[in-house]
Write a structure and sequence with these properties.
alpha+beta, two-stranded antiparallel sheet
Amino acid sequence: MRWLIPLAIVPLLAACSEQQMCISRATKDLRQVQSFIAESEGNLARGYALVEKQYIDYDIERCGTTDEGKAIYCREPDIETRRVPKAIDLDAEAAKLAALKKKEAQLSVQAQAAVDSCKIQYPE
């Protein structure tokens, strides 16, 4: 039965061509930097950052019975993740955004060369 799970993934892998996988690998860093840029721009537009914070609450759930048939209840943790505002230094955030945009320009040139190479190496 365990061998069925890997077999279920095979069609998903086959759906991506070698060229698409090569392009994805070649643009990974660029996409990450672009994600950071979007986050930084959002922080500057709002005037604060949003960070994830976990809150733990406990639920009481039935977890068994005694030999006499009485129910046993246990405390089960219920973890909730919320995005909460956090103060930031707007000048430092603006400087970070400028550095990220500079890095994006560098990575864009590198990624385009790598994408062109992928298209030559793996024609469709």
